[in-house]
Amino acid sequence: MSQSHGKRKATQDSSQQRKRVVLTYAQKYQLYLDYQKTLQPTQKKLAAIYKCKQNTISDIF
Predict the structure, then answer these.
(1) Nearest CA to 47 among 18, 17, 21, 14?
(2) Is the dihedral of CA 35, 27, 22, 16 positive or negative?
(3) What predicted TM-score, i.e. pTM, was given to this entire model?
(4) Cα of 29 vs its chain's centroid, Å
(5) Which residue, among 55, 56, 1, has the nearest Cα to 23 in the 3D structure?
(6) 18 touches 12 (CB < 8 A)
(7) HSE-up of 7 (CA within 13 Å, CB side)?
(8) How far is CA 43 from CA 4, 13, 37, in A?
(9) What is the C-alpha to C-alpha distance for residues 21 and 18, in angstroms, rounded to an integer?
(10) Which of 5, 47, 52, 55 could form a disulfide bond with 21, CB atoms 3.0-4.6 angstroms apart?
(11) How far apart are CA 5 and CA 61, in angstroms?
């Protein structure tokens, strides 16, 4: 039982190290323009440019 608690605690520690990225309206608009301008941008590439996760990009679109 203590092993499963240890695993859970390790998961919580790793999630606490991540910081929430909040994109402003202007950044979201620029991201949308970049998406339209580029032939086939991937959400991963856009996430790397804006220093956020792929699912954040997906939520915006």
Answers:
(1) 21
(2) positive
(3) 0.45
(4) 16
(5) 56
(6) no
(7) 3
(8) 35, 27, 14
(9) 9
(10) 52
(11) 38
The structure tokens listed for 52 are: 């956020």
Are 35 and 61 in contact, with CB atoms under 8 Å apart?
Answer: yes
Domain residue ranges of the chain, discontinuous segments joined by +: 20-61
Structure tokens at 45: 């590439």
Give me 20's structure tokens: 């929430």
Q: Residue 21 corresponds to which amino acid?
A: V
d(CA 39, CA 12): 39
18: closest CA among 57, 51, 40, 61? 51
- The stretch 8-26 carries a mean pLDDT of 67
